[in-house]
Amino acid sequence: MTSAHTLCAILIAGSPADDTERTPLAQEIPLHLTPLLGKTPLVFAVQALVEAGITHITCLGWDEPEQCQAQLQSGLQWGCHITWHSLSGPRQAFARLVDLAPAEGPFLLATTCSLMRVSSTNTAQPGTLLEPPATDTSDCSPLWNWAWLDRQLCQEMSAAHRWHEWPQALAATCHSRVPAQALSLMDGNDLLNAIPRMINRSFPVVLDASEVEPGIFLSRNVIIHPTAEIIAPFYAGPDVEIEKNCRIGPAVALSGRTHIGHSSRLSETQIGPDSWIGDALDLHECVVFRGVIWSRRHQARMTIFDALILAHGSTPLKWHSLVNAFTERTLALMLLFLLAPLLLLAVTASAVAQAGPKIIQLVRPDISHMAIPTVAFISWLGAHPCTLGWKHMVGFVLPNLPGVLMGKCHLIGARPRSLDQWAQLPLAHQRWLAQKACGLLQEEWVVGIQENDPLQSMVLERYQETRSHEWTYKWGLIWRYLHKILVNSNPVKLQAIKT
Known about the structure:
CATH superfamily of the largest domain: Spore Coat Polysaccharide Biosynthesis Protein SpsA, Chain A
Radius of gyration: 29 Å
Number of strands: 28
Distance between the termini: 55 Å
Strand content: 15-25%
Oligomer: single chain
Strand order of the largest sheet: 3-2-1-4-7-6-8
Helix content: 25-40%
Number of domains: 3
CATH topology of the largest domain: Spore Coat Polysaccharide Biosynthesis Protein SpsA, Chain A
CATH class of the largest domain: Alpha Beta
């Protein structure tokens, strides 16, 4: 049995897509150097080897060798010793294995095309293949497994197989199998699929909690590989870079300072402020707002369908805030006089039923998201901010209109939430809501959102906040709310609003 302190490994940094020796385009980033939750697959692979007890790693690579060496250095920061060997291309991978393999004893052969968990060094026997259980993978293509080999097995494998036959070569060379947890990291789509498993710890990795923002799929300063398909539910933090030729949406929310590459296709997506958007894009039913920077403004080839491109949201002046508060109170007073008969009917019905008004404590987000203060709202007939139809207007909006006049809340603003609902929100969205005013009427109530879709709720809240400085929008929202109540007494179900 080989002792743990003598274990070594050979790590190949490269992708099976590199079947030629040509240099990749300058703007393309190799997959093994693409940030994945704050680290690259190359670093994750090194950490997985160190966890298995590997003390010496020989790393082979041909794509951006300077960047790889800059990340790995001598390996002391990872707890091992790393030796780097540059190759002219992937065809040399098998040829150099025989030369670099230890003269005696087994070694672990690994690649950055997959991330595997080596649970025990007791399996360090030559000819042992690490592979996931059959129920643990649904990939159409074979996984690039890791394996324990020795120099003799390397000679047999390199003589009978080629680089792109890696899965078949290891399967034919190894005579025993050991189950192991595995993640495929062969393309950008695999990176996106790996992120949820890494966050919810179904595939444990060496990952500090501070590197992932709770409740979202990507943290800030992440680069998504080219040709990735980004689908819902998806919410990216600020400073995310999305490479070219990506498909984004529907129902995707991207935060501020997002970089979207050329020739991408976006549908039903909200793009945050101060974003950089490439040329040759298709925008379908998107909300693009606040200081978006268009690339090649005069030569851009864009197909825009039903997109709403809004101006930069500058900080309103003090007089503007005063006018806004006066308008809010005026609208609330008008609604109170207009709908007063309905309030009297509700009071009478409650008196007959001997069910007086209830006081419900809801989070007022515009004070502080850390202290989570609650404000008392009046509720008739058991209504709350998510109630449907007439009951919402009579039981929740009307009783709290005096609160708008007193400045306790706004007529139009973010939806008040209970403490449980607030706790379920992503931390990034809590921080955003902490700077916004809560209100009685919301865009999401009028439009209706899908069942259990917190992402769409966040998108509509951000859209409403962007438009809420326009008087025409406020009048229009109130009119659409009354029209929904008076004309369509069974509005689109807001099973939604459970977030």
